[in-house]
Amino acid sequence: MQQFIDLLSAETGRAFAAAGYDAAMGRISVSGRPDLCEYQCNGAMAGAKTYHKAPFVIAQEVAEQLKETSVFSLVDVVKPGFINLNVQDDFLEAYLQNMREADKFGFETSKEPKMIIIDYGGPNVAKPLHVGHLRSAVIGEAVKRILRFHGDNAIGDIHLGDWGLQMGLVITELKKRQPGLPYFDEGFTGEYPEEAPFTVSDLEEIYPYASAKSKEDEAYHEEALENTRLLQDGDRGYRALWRHILNVSVADMKKNYANLNVTFDLWNGESTVHDLIPGMVEKMKADGFAYESQGALVVDVAKESDPKEVPPCMILKSDGAALYTTTDLATLLMREQDCHPDEIIYVVDKRQELHFVQTFRAAEKCGLIHPDCRLVFDGFGTVNGKDGRPFKTRDGGVMRLSSLIAEIDASMLEKIEANPAIQGEEAQKTAQQVGLAAIKYGDLSNQASKDYIFDTEKFTSFEGNTGPYILYTIVRIKSILGKYAAEGGKAPETLRLGLPQSAAEKNLMRDIAGFSAMMQEAYEDIAPHRICGYIYQLSNDFNSFYHGTRIMTEQDVAKKEAWIALLELTRSILETCIDVLGFEAPERM
Questions:
Q1: What is the CA angle 571-573-579, rounded to 5?
Q2: What class has domain 123-160+267-384?
Q3: Is the pTM of this model over 0.90?
Q4: What CATH code would you report for 4-87?
């Protein structure tokens, strides 16, 4: 189904062509001055230089061609050459009726679906998830859902940090505390215990302790490095212990991500590609791309067009150890072999941009991916406190993700229980749903690349540009539809829309008509914040319509039924959008 704005542009384009001008000049946009008109065409301004005519003259000639239009109710030429336009009510109503009957409201999905991998999450095993993991998970999940809505085959990969020094640190400290465990007995040949000799709480205490100690004790640090090497070289006991660490950590991660309604198709980690690294490195050297520099193995990735220096991409350190870059390159090689993706999107901290510039260029230069595979760095900003610094707990520590979620849920529960009709389990579930909307919308409503302030009071408010406000709008619509059904009303999907009866109703209908264009923009720009902006506008315009319209007391049956049909369509659009963003609305609040 063609986008509404494209249909309008086609009409003005026809008028430009009929007047002797390029039809492409007929492109229109939503008016920035809604007090003057609904849409605007500025093509005459651009055509003045090409056709050596005053833009006002061009606009008048085009307006003359639109005299008999069935699309626009207003065609007004304004100096120096703008064409102001209002759409015909019946044209708008017919378009929305077609939206109701079409799959995905007429949104055209990809005719040639892409295979796209989204790399998001990226937590380190043995460490608790903290607020710094929030953005990658929330943005990555929304991006995955946007791609799938478009019709692409989108695969989410968590890309665990499960193979580095943190593993050696945990193993070293466990050996100090429990030296009698069979994992440390070189002569042990039996089966290792199925149950881990630690809990997730133990790991959360062990890792920071070991990390701090290694910074103060050089011998301890060297031992951790050696244990990391032994693990990676295949020490039987260390590998068994590592599997315990992985299983305990991942089980806890899955609970935390489930609380965020975030899922992954692949739970691969750096360890997954360990065996690919030697062959990859040898091929890089054999092909003449990798060479030694000051003992390290590097690949030159600088380009003459670079505005500032891009250092060589280091593949192996001088001691032969692999780096993050090495495993990222091997991961690209694995993804190419397993999935042959058209695109790979990395939803990561924007401060890692140089690393990914180097990695992408090295992968392309060394032929680790096919030439048509597009590598995308989708860098995000930091989550800050009200002081503008990275978000912390009240005592200055790093806020755990589980603590943040619990804090938001508690705040929402207090507000939900203010309604005496919602108590107990329903109140708990509703608070979790609204709390999740507060967190996700609070993050996603910001352009991903920008830092933002996590303001609990603002994000949990039922007013303003917040998740709870969007949910409250949906619940309000559900409540009206419920009352209508209780009165014996017809099923909303069997009713027809009507012509708008007020400016507020027409604004709402025009918002709905813009759904497909908005979703296409969100897809092309990898921009969940566009969906947030859209549903905030839609919610505002619905509430303006609602407050100015006596829906349930309307005596004219045809009017009332048309309004119920419009409410049902608005609810469906809003719920589709929040599902793409990764949260849902309760039945009541």
A1: 100
A2: alpha beta
A3: yes
A4: 3.30.1360.70
